[in-house]
Design a protein that fits this description.
Layout (H helix, E strand, L loop, with lengths): L1 H23 L6 H19 L9 H10 L3 H13 L7 H23 L6 H24 L7 H27 L8 H22 L18 H17 L10 H8 L3 H11 L5 H18 L8 H7 L5 H12 L3 H14 L1
Length: 348
């Protein structure tokens, strides 16, 4: 059994080191690559530190390995968010969640290496709940953005990634329940076996992955070839958006729009992304909505209308996402923009 464990443990560690080195090459300019590198290093610490007794490292190596593995789930979470969430930035609440998650684990390591006694049960339970919460948030975030993602390769990756995380969670929970009593000696080996397939999948995925799937920049994709088809699709899209004002519909989706234009989702995605240069469907729709809002906010005849009413009239379903989209595109809040337009009129 020890030989069996060693084969998977050391091969997994070797793959993690290779992943870290591959990701490190682009880590300075890419958050996904940075967090993939950190995730791989942290998981390597888990593989080498959380071992059966026969494979235990000397203390001089064991302590650093066990400290390295503390934030592995946080790094995987941030990797998923940075890869699949548009315009991702590490915000204060990410740091807060990461700190709250890591603190009880660090305390557990202190108990382990100083022989203070058994780690408090409540802290163990808290760590488990936080792990489940982070993993659930990761899966929900990855899957919710799938339909809006212009990259077909990344859309498929979202499903595979979520399935992989779900498998590891379910498998880890199952072995914790099954391997008790005299079977507990196999727990550390079983955990390695649940993680090992995901490492291999990530390695294959990374090797085969085109750079476009690691960024929300418009990828170099196969273009629509027939100029007549391209011209017709452009004219139909302009008619739908500028004349029929489809952007005013709060529930408009790329599927609905593709059906109206009698084209496939894939063709419409490709056209909006490669021809028009939009990163995703929301950016495309919001560009029309915000231009209409700007026009209304600049019009003295609409001064009696609230910002919220103008936003709702032009397809936004609530104020918060509207404010974010407007600020990202215009650089001002809607109220600041309206005030600037009023001052400009008065100055004339």
């Amino acid at each position: 059994m020890i030989l069996f464990d060693a084969i998977f443990r050391y091969s997994g560690t070797a793959l993690l080191i290779i992943l870290a080195l591959l990701a490190f090459r682009r880590a300075q300019n890419s958050l996904p690559h940075l967090f993939l590198c950190l995730s791989s290093i942290s998981l390597a610490g888990l593989f080498m530190g959380y071992t059966p007794e026969a494979l235990t490292l000397p203390d001089v190596l064991l302590v650093p390995a066990r400290l390295l593995d503390v934030p592995h789930l946080v790094f995987i979470w941030l990797f998923a968010l940075s890869l699949f969430e548009k315009d991702f930035r590490v915000r204060p609440w990410h740091w807060l969640v990461g700190t709250v998650f890591c603190l009880p684990i660090i305390v557990a390591r202190i108990f382990q290496f100083t022989e203070l006694g058994p780690f408090p049960l409540w802290a163990t339970a808290l760590s488990g709940v936080l792990s489940f919460g982070i993993a659930l948030h990761m899966i929900v975030t990855v899957l919710l953005g799938r339909t809006d993602d212009m990259s077909s390769q990344r859309r498929a990756s979202r499903v595979y990634f979520s399935a992989m995380i779900a498998f590891v969670i379910v498998a880890a929970a199952a072995i914790e329940l099954i391997l008790v009593g005299e079977w507990a000696v196999y727990l550390r080996t079983a955990k390695v076996l649940t993680i090992w397939p995901s490492i291999v999948w990530t390695m294959v995925w990374l090797v085969e992955l085109r750079p476009a799937a690691f960024a929300f920049d418009p990828p170099a994709r196969k273009r629509l070839h027939d100029p007549e088809i391209v011209s017709r699709l452009h004219d139909q899209l302009i008619t739908e958006m500028q004349i029929k004002k489809a952007y005013r519909e709060p529930d408009i989706t790329i599927l609905i729009l593709a059906k109206r234009l009698a084209v496939t989702q894939h063709s419409l995605r490709e056209f909006i992304n490669s021809r028009l240069g939009f990163k995703n469907f929301s950016d495309f729709i919001n560009s029309y909505r915000i231009e209409a809002v700007k026009s209304a906010l600049s019009d003295p005849d609409h001064q009696h209308k609230s910002v919220l009413q103008i936003a709702l009239d032009n397809g936004f379903s609530s104020l918060s996402p509207f404010n974010r989209a407007f600020k990202n595109q215009v650089g001002l809040t809607p109220r600041e923009f309206r005030e600037a337009q009023r001052e400009r009129r008065e100055a004339r």
